[in-house]
Amino acid sequence: MPYTDNDGVRIHYEVKGDGPPLVLQHGLSSNMSRWSAAGFVDALKSDYKIMLIDARGHGDSDKPYDADVYDRKIMASDVIAVLDAEGVDRSHYMGYSMGGSIGFGLAESYPDRFHSLIIGGMHPYPINGLDNLIEMLKGGMEAWVGSMDPQPTPERKKMLLANDPRSITAAALGLRNRPDLSHVLPTMTMPCLVYAGDADDLQVGAEKCVKDMPNVTWASLPGLDHGQAMERSDMVLPHVRSFLSGVAQSATTAD
Question: What is the pLDDT of residues 59-111, one digit of tens each?
Fold first, then answer.
């Protein structure tokens, strides 16, 4: 299992497939395995060098408990540390939920390192709705998972319960305290795909932000809530494939 060190924090990652590099970054309380479970890795690894990253506080990466080290700039630098460890100068990036927030952080601090950005289930504005999660986590992962309605699938439940509630709380605080990043939108000149389920509370902000992005494709996924838009690769992948194909074609034409 490869690791890289970013200022004393070990970041776990895996590389699968061959082709142009594509980072996949999961959301809050998940880990890299969720991309495989949802079918994204098998669908993409024949065409791309998939770089899966366990965000700090998650999976097999280190789990600091200080919310300050979950700042969007620091979490963006974790992605760059993985690219550097693999000798990758530029990559495509796909992040969902918290991973989408990290994507805005990458656009803010490291725009020259990415051919394109795919941001799912996230917007750049202040994030509401995390206070209940943070309060529930005081009772441990079991209290939060037990409160879910409907209950997650057995596989998802196992993933959630494996988390350290203290590091997930710190990551949730970092996400809640993230400043408004809408100033970044006009600077995002690389090709971008933004998508969200139309039953997701974050969809309104996601659809709003694309109006200020100069080179963006927008996709609304009918009938899907926040969790479903991560699970339904059959609905997401056609947009992703079409987008990445268009990016490659544009690059070839420019050359």
Answer: 999 999 999 999 999 999 999 999 999 999 999 999 999 999 999 999 999 99
Phi and psi, residue 19, nearest 5° = 135, -165
Amino acid at 103: G
pLDDT band at 255 (very low <50, low <70, confident <90, very high): low
Q: Is 177 a residue whose pLDDT tops 80?
A: yes
Strands (E), the chain: 3-6, 9-16, 21-25, 49-53, 91-96, 114-120, 192-197, 216-221
* 3-state SS, residue 40: helix
Alpha-carbon span 91 to 80, nearest angstrom: 10
Please give the average per-residue pLDDT across 197-222, as a whole number.
Answer: 98
Copy the structure tokens of residue 136: 């529930």
CATH superfamily of 3-126+181-250: Alpha/Beta hydrolase fold, catalytic domain (3.40.50.1820)
Task: Give the list of residues 6+ apart from residue 159 with CB closer than 8 angstroms, or none.
Answer: 29, 30, 31, 33, 34
